Amino acid sequence: MDVIRTKAALRAQVAAWQRGGETVAxxxxxxxxxxxxxxxxxxxxxRAERCVATIFVNPRQFGPNEDFETYPRDEERDLAKxxxxxxxxxxxxxxxxxxxxxxxxxVTVHEISEVMEGASRPGFFTGVATVVSKLLIQSLPDIxxxxxxxxxxxxVIRTMARDLxxxxxxxxxxxxxxxxxxxxxxxxxxxxxxxxxxxxxxHRAMIAASEAVHAGxxxxxxxxxxxxxxxxxxxxxxxxxxxxxxxxxxxxETQAENLRIFAAARxxxxxxxxxxxx
Length: 278
Ligand code: AMP
Hints:
With about 280 residues, the chain is of the alpha/beta class. About 40% of the residues lie in helices and about 20% in strands.
């Protein structure tokens, strides 16, 4: 498995594979690799001959009071996991390789970036859309794979790739969960044992809301009940728990097709997000 540090070497390697008739999948990450990330690599290797993972903790998607400095970083461990999953190469650029002195350009996807994660984390999706645009243009893969765990992010990236005419298929991969339902996340490492016991209540509340809507409940009432449930279970804050149309992100006011429940909730300093199709 090659470890690539420059965009020139990345583009040359991907182009060499494609010239030889092989297709290439890209799976961008911020490191602290877990089974959720590795499931993207495995899907990449099912859909393409080669899979390139990327590790880059993108400073532009963190707010001033967020965890950029303390975000878990362990390159050796991450590389070993990618190697064991069968990755062909891992791209690990320095911040200076990504944002050279004098860097000035940003990519913003309007409207769908402004609700939920975008409302509670100003600038987050501009940071994500900018770095993912750069990673896709630097590598020019055939497909790029993102987790449904970050469903709004997946939608923002699909829209960005469509609007910028990037000739790359964007593929979503299902959320990988612990046995108790907690979605795998690098930030779960911040949970202490007591918080770890409380954390699966988020997924339970989302399932209950989804079942209630199935049984005929008003989606606004079901979402409000889920907010109460997570606070009763010991969460410190329900940042948002909404039932929305999964394409437009319009809040659901009645029973409808195509609904999804989206949640962000805080346990101490740890901010968990999750979502579920209804
Ligand atoms: P991150 O390193 O957290 O930025 O995540 C990198 C990619 O892995 C994103 O496309 C995420 O949506 C995806 N991902 C993170 N956690 C999971 C999970 N539990 N299941 C599936 N994909 C995930």
